[in-house]
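Weekly structure sync, notes
Attendees: PL (lead), two postdocs, one rotation student
Agenda item 3: pending single-chain targets
PL asked that the sequence for the first pending target be pasted directly into the notes so everyone works from the same version. It is reproduced below exactly as submitted, 338 residues in total.
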Amino acid sequence: MRTKWIMAKINQIIWGVIGAGDVCEIKSAPALSKIPFSKVKMIMRRDAVKAADYAKRHKIEYWTTNLDDLLSDKEINAIYIATPPDTHAEITLKAAAAGKAVYVEKPMATTYAECLRMIDACVIAEVPLFVAYYRRTLPGFLKVKEIIEKGLIGDIRFVNIEMYQSIQTDIIANIATNWRIIPEIAGGGYFHDLSSHQLDYLDFLFGPIVEAHGVSENQAGLYTADDIVSGSFRFENGVVGSGIWCFTTDPVSEKDQINIVGSQGELSFNTFGNPMIINMESSTNGKQQFVFNHLQPIQEPLIKLIVDELRGVGTAPGNGISGARTNWVMEQIIGKQD
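Predicted structure, written out during the meeting:
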């Protein structure tokens, strides 16, 4: 898949960034220039004023409103796609055709079928494809993986996800412009936006999910996307799982917890928010708590490993193939298959 790229022996990763919203502002793009052997040359945004402002504040030399400016720049060898999901496939195909490595925000695309087209395009072009599932590299989530791999809670039996959120005032005020709850743009609703992180991380822990079922419903009728999803799934290694995601609860019911139960104990942790708190209880190791504060830019650990892989000196823990699996699982759970 990456023969042409590896043979090129690229030492400096020069990025073109597409999209400059909140995620790009805080979580990702600053790391692209902070990491050794990596820098951002050009930022692209449809709004010229905002593109120029972003470039000035982040000391990026060039900005543009035209995608072709990035793709035709021979010095730029990698593209970071930070636009809404409905544009991910189209831009990835163009970037691959231009010979650029691709790093795309999550979820990888609006459908699993789009993900497969993205993978095929990058295979044909022999360029790498990565997805921004950065929890695979954060210290707290690596601690959970360490606990499991050391057998501190025994053989894993099952995992359960509980994600309950109340309707926030800003969501109600911006329903018409909030792309995360417009299925045509996001692929679904907040389930796609948030559960994708959780399901990808569980893929990292236990391997691929090979069977998944579920139901989804729009109960509150506040927007088009379904606002409650319930699912069950089975991993290739025999671990089973379940989850319920509801985005219209009362504030007193808000919850963000993944619980993993083993033959000799269990552990639980939050996927979102800061700090990440891990609680473990085992018949042999007693009760323990671990607290991890996420540092910003939060995507820096993943981006560093991506840069290492692009330079031929390391490996990133995930790629387009694993990213596509998460889209497949979400579609199975909500009953949508292309």
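Discussion points:
- The chain has a mean pLDDT of 94.
- Residues 190-206 form the longest helix (17 residues).
Action: rotation student to compare against the earlier draft before next sync.
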